[in-house]
Amino acid sequence: MTYEPGTLEGERLLLTDDRPRRRRRWIIAALAALALVGGWFVFKHEKAAPPPAQSADAGGPNVTVIVPGNQLVDRTVSATGTLAARREMPVGVAGEGGMVSRVLVEPGQWVKAGQVLATVDRSVQAQTAASLAAQIGVAQSDLTLAQSELERAQSLVDRGFISKADVQRRIATRDAAAARLKVSRAALSEQRARNARLDIRAPAEGLVLTRGVEPGQIVSSGSGVLFRMAKGGEMEMRAQLSEGDLQAIHVGSPATVTPVGDTRQFSGQVWQVSPIIDPQTRQGIARVALSYNPALRPGGFASTTITANAGNAPELPQSALQSDDQGNYVYIVDGNNKAQRRNVTLGPVDNNKVAIATGLTGNERVVLSAGAFLNPGQKVTPILRRQGS
C-alpha cells in the first residue's frame, strides 16, 4: 500500500518508520558521551596522581654480597730440618778402664736401664778383690781372738790374777781388731764397686744409635764416647723457621713430619721454640717431638707442616679478591649502595678461602664476585648471601 506525501496517512507512516533510527542515534550519542566522560576522568586522575617512586637501587647492576664476620684462622707453616734424638745420651767409661773383652749390643737395638753394653777385662781387679776378701777373714779372726782374751781377763781380774791395766790393754786390742775388720770390709766394697764400673751400662732405657768400641780395644775415662743412645727412643725434628713463622708457633702446635725418601707422615707436636734468632740466617728452630719409629733416623732430612693459630680474622672466597699495581683489594657496598674499593692485606690461604689480615673488620658487605666489572662509586643492587649458602 502506498500513500501520497503530504497526506495524513503518509505523515503518520513516515513518523512510524523514523522512530527506530532516532532511538539508535540517541543510544550512540549517549555511549559517545560516556566514553568522553570516562576518558576525561582517567586523564585527570593520571595527571593528578604522583609518578611512582623510583627504587634507590634502580639503575644499578645486581651484585652478590657477603658479610664475612670473624673466624678462628689456622695458619699452616711449612719448613725443613733434620731429625735427631730428642734426648741423646753419650755413654763412656766411668771407671779406670782397661781392655774391652765383650761388646753386647748393636746400633738400632733397644736396651733397658742398667743393661750391660760392653765389658772390660777385670782379671787383675778380680784378684785384688779376692785378696781384700781374704784380709777380711784375717781381721775377723783377730777380732775373735781379741774378744776371747778380753773375756778371760775380765773373769780373772776379780781374783787378783790379772791387773786392771792388762784388762784395759786387751780392750784396746779388741777394738783395734774390730776397726781393722771394718777397714777390710770397706776396702773390699770399694774394689767391688770399681769392678762393677768396668761394665759399661745403659744409663736409661732407650735406643742404641751408635757404637764406637770393639773387643780388644783399650779404653779409659779419656777415651770419649763409646755409645750414643736416644733416651726412651724419642725423636725430634729441628725445623728451621723464619722470624715471622716462628712468631706464630707455640709449644703444643700440632705438626706432621715426612722424612726424605718416605711417603709416610708422622704426627708430632712442637715441644720447644728457640728463644733466639740466628743473626746470620735470620732463622730460629722449632723442635717437633716424635715417637719412636725405625723410619725416623737421626741425622736424616725431613719436611714438616705445622699448624699454628693465627687468631680471628675475616675469611673470603678467592673470587672476592682483586689485585692491581696498588696491591690486593676488594669491593664493599656502603650505606648508599655504592661500590667502594677497600685495600686489604692477605693472611693464611686454606681451602679456597683467604684470611684478611688487615683492611676489613668483618662487618662490611663485600662483593662476592664480578668485582672486576665495578668502578668505585658505582650504584649497585646488593643481594646478600648468607654464610654457608
UniProtKB/TrEMBL annotation:
One GO cellular component this record assigns the protein to is: efflux pump complex
Q: Name one Pfam family in it.
A: Beta-barrel_RND_2
Record domain CusB-like beta-barrel: where: 238-308
- Which residues are listed as membrane-spanning? 26-43
Named from the GO MF annotations, one term is: efflux transmembrane transporter activity
Q: Which parts of the sequence belong to the YknX-like C-terminal permuted SH3-like domain?
A: 315-381
**Which InterPro entries does the UniProt record give?**
Beta-barrel_RND_2 (IPR058792), BSH_CzcB-like (IPR058647), RND_pump_MFP (IPR006143), YknX-like_C (IPR058637)
Q: Which residues form the signal peptide?
A: none
| Keywords from the named record | Membrane, Transmembrane, Transmembrane helix
Report the NCBIfam families cross-referenced here. RND_mfp
Q: Which family does it belong to?
A: Belongs to the membrane fusion protein (MFP) (TC 8.A.1) family.
The protein's name is: RND family efflux transporter, MFP subunit
